[in-house]
Specification:
The complex is a heterodimer. By secondary structure, chain A is of the alpha+beta class. Chain A contains 4 helices and 10 strands, in the order αββββαβαββββαβ. The relative contact order of chain B is 0.18. Classes of the chains: A alpha+beta, B alpha+beta. Chains A and B meet through helix 3 and strand 6 of A and helix 3 of B.
């Protein structure tokens, strides 16, 4: 075998190994579409996130939030921030079609904020007052808290998409301004039915 | 019936109906200071409702062991008041204003209910007004008021009120009296009472 032919084959092999490596990395970093198995709700996890679905038994006489997606960030950046997100789906399709009717009242918004603060631990404060925010194709009521000490800050969000009532709570130890960007990306990816 | 005696006195009969007993209360209610007080009462009630609502919310916030920090909780206050208080408060304001406007008819209605709900002639009083004072004769009762007891006189379209007390007066309905008799009565009263209506 001549030198040039050997060199050519070596180049091809190197190229092949490199391409395989790149492909493997791409697969590892790919976004994962997770169907929650309830009311055709699906979510696309951001790169580096994993998710598990928990489902309690649904009692028709007593519907509740019995389907839960627990997502967790596994990237290097999340080794200190420990980002997690939980997404609950209500068992039944709501008669309300939009989120406006769910948390429009002042007392409901106050209770929503209060719950987020309770889940943020003692001495937590509101980092971002409750707002009707656009995430992806949908609008969510979102509130952010700032925890103190070793507790996690919370982003609590609630919406109704095509009658599906969703509540999300994302947590992080990070104190950065953009600490909930990945959480928002996750919530933006929520779709219903055949869109995914 | 209307009687007139000689120069020293005037005598006449006057019938009393339910509306005559309400007349004094209405006369008092029409005084400027009473009207002003009634208006202030309504205004206080109207404005005390939102104040009470805010105080209630503040109390509920204080007793909540897991309350939202004050600097954040205060931001909810306008929306809470708008959502929960606005319509009930407007209804309350409308009711209070309506009651204030219906004050006179309410008094007439209440007195009418006390009287059995009809505006009948209750009794006929005989009046004698002379140099000594005013004598009122009712069945089994004779009341004599000497002039120093009469503090002032007030006149409306339908009544003369001879005030003997801040809260009481001798009521003379003009319904059964001729205009000459009314003038004669007023003339005799003005001769003895400082604050009296002039012809």
């Amino acid at each position: 075998m001549s030198k040039s032919l050997l060199g050519h084959r070596m180049s091809l092999a190197t190229l092949g190994v490199f391409a395989t490596f790149i492909f493997a990395v791409a697969i590892a970093q790919a976004e994962e579409i997770v169907a929650l198995g309830a009311l055709d709700v699906a979510v696309t996890l951001p790169p580096g996130w994993t998710g598990t679905i928990e489902r309690k038994e649904h009692e028709p006489a007593n519907p509740g939030y019995n389907t839960q997606l627990k997502a967790k960030c596994e990237t290097e950046n999340c080794e200190t921030s420990l980002d997690t997100c939980s997404l609950w789906v209500f068992d039944e399709v709501s008669r309300h079609r939009t989120a406006r009717s769910v948390l429009d009242a002042g007392r409901d918004q106050y209770e929503f904020t209060r719950t987020a603060l309770i889940h943020s631990g003692p001495d937590a404060s509101v980092a971002k007052h409750i707002e009707f925010e656009t995430l992806g194709k949908s609008r969510w009521y979102v509130v952010e808290t700032r925890a103190s000490g070793r507790y996690k800050s919370v982003l609590r969000a609630e919406t109704i998409i095509e009658g599906r009532h969703l509540v999300a709570e994302c947590r992080t130890c990070s104190r950065d301004y953009d600490r909930f960007d990945a959480s928002r990306e996750l919530l933006s990816s929520v779709v219903i039915g055949k869109d995914h | 019936m209307d009687l007139q005696s000689a120069n020293s006195a005037v005598e006449f009969d006057a019938s009393f109906r339910t509306e005559d007993y309400a007349a004094l209360t209405l006369q008092m209610a029409d005084r400027r200071d009473i009207k002003r007080w009634r208006f202030l009462q309504v205004a206080m009630l109207v404005f005390i409702v939102p104040v009470a609502a805010v105080a209630t919310l503040a109390f509920l916030w204080v007793v909540d062991s897991q309350r939202v920090p004050f600097s954040d909780a205060i931001l909810f206050l306008p929306k809470l008041l708008w959502d929960e208080l606005l319509i009930p408060w407007l209804l309350f304001c409308a009711f209070a204003i309506l009651e204030m406007l219906r004050y006179r008819s309410n008094i007439r209605a209440r007195v009418g209910r006390l009287a059995g709900g009809v505006n009948l002639t209750f009794e006929t009083n005989h009046f004698r007004i002379d140099d000594r004072g005013v004598e009122v004769t009712r069945p089994y009762v004779i009341s004599r008021y000497e002039w120093p007891a009469i503090r002032s006189v007030e006149e409306t379209d339908n009544h003369l009120f001879l005030r003997n007390h801040q809260l009481a007066a001798i009521i003379i309905p003009k319904r059964d009296l001729t205009s000459e008799t009314v003038e004669s009565v007023k003339m005799r009263i003005s001769a003895h009472v400082q604050e009296s209506p002039r012809s």
